[in-house]
Prior knowledge:
The protein is α/β, with parallel strands linked by helices. The protein is built from 13 helices and 8 strands. It is globular, with a radius of gyration of 17 Å. Keywords: Glycosyltransferase, Transferase.
Amino acid sequence: MEGTVNILGIPFSKLTLDETTNQLTEHIQKETSKLFHLITANPEITIANQTDKHLQEIISEADLVTPDGIGIVLASKRKGEPIQERVTGYDLLLRLLDKGNTLGWSFYFLGTDEVTSRKAVEVIGKLYPNITISGRKNGFFTEEEEFNILHEIQQTKPNILILAMGAPYSDKWIYKHKRTLIDVKVVFGVGGSLDVIAGKVKPTPTFWKKLNLEWLHRLLTVPVAKGQKSRWRRQSALPKFVYRAIIKRNI
């Protein structure tokens, strides 16, 4: 695929954060646009993709996969097809909120716990008063509630649907309901971004960001939600990724 670099079977976009934002802006501003499914993939997702056939199908049909991790950037340089920078779900969300505040876009937020969801949307409404918040729901819902959520999204037709239910679950949920989400223009998962916006989780200090150690800061400071794998277990994918994509260059 043009403008991408293949890392362990995933076609990662070479677009910068600015370029990605511009592409999504152009898509949203079109009067008629099909659903644009963007995936932000980190080394953990890249390793999971090696054995998860369903995830492979989802990623192969995505409209854009951005590099959400310094490991992806390093692997691309090792391959000789360098990606300039990471494009994380959190950074992209902030950029689109800013654009949406200027252009009057609408957003729907789905995921995280009820208290955090409510607080995050409250903060977003104050910081970006010109966007329309089409709706919000926490990520703990029954099948009946899910039906009502999908109906509400169909009715409100937000420009952007944001999911904060963790990866790869968010993207599997999106894929499952693609036909129902046809009136949404852009959809993507943002991991724990709403937790940061709500103040539940402190943002990574600049010092850690400059060293590209945001993953380590999260590992040491962010609590794990009930029912999720421990962060130490999840980060076990990192050495596998380093070996396969950077040392062995099996890419």
